[in-house]
């Protein structure tokens, strides 16, 4: 099975990231999934934005109305669900822990377990999703900060592997630069499927599309990813998550 092509914050090489326009472009390109970041405002509105702050003001301390004044392009999760329902599958990154139930209450009426995954850097968020929504696949994001955390607490590969198993993550999603990192290879390679981010280089994308370890490729350029995948010989894509 060839890897899924997942539009990182929408087709963010072609439109402003994490906006309805970027998601519309991803849909038009035929991407398998769209990835986006979820945060929550002071008045508990779930919004799509990567950074914790807008114009140096924390989103968690702003009401949605105040946030909308600062950047009117920031959509709500409800708006994204309405746009994407029946058109594309979702890769939902929880940027914080603690609002998992609220997120799922918006997602579940429109998307079944086969139409979405949830990812996070926060083990608590992954554990809570798997505890309350075991049918939904969840992925633990693995970045350079994760490696630094493991080293600072002197966690060996077995300790990290045990933690990943404890949170019941269905797959690991590392930064592409960490694919050859010794810790990552000892922790997850061969143990769980791998989704890799953020791959924009065409030769690298071509190589990863032929790598049996990789189940998903998250990219700012889903149009390019789809073209490369379609051009590969004996292309097979089952559509399974």
TrEMBL record:
Pfam families: GDPD. GO terms for biological process: lipid metabolic process. InterPro entries: GP_PDE_dom, PLC-like_Pdiesterase_TIM-brl. Residues 3-229 form the GP-PDE domain. It comes from the Bacteria. PROSITE patterns: GP_PDE. One of its GO terms (molecular function) is phosphoric diester hydrolase activity. PANTHER family: GLYCEROPHOSPHODIESTER PHOSPHODIESTERASE, CYTOPLASMIC, GLYCEROPHOSPHORYL DIESTER PHOSPHODIESTERASE. This is Glycerophosphodiester phosphodiesterase.
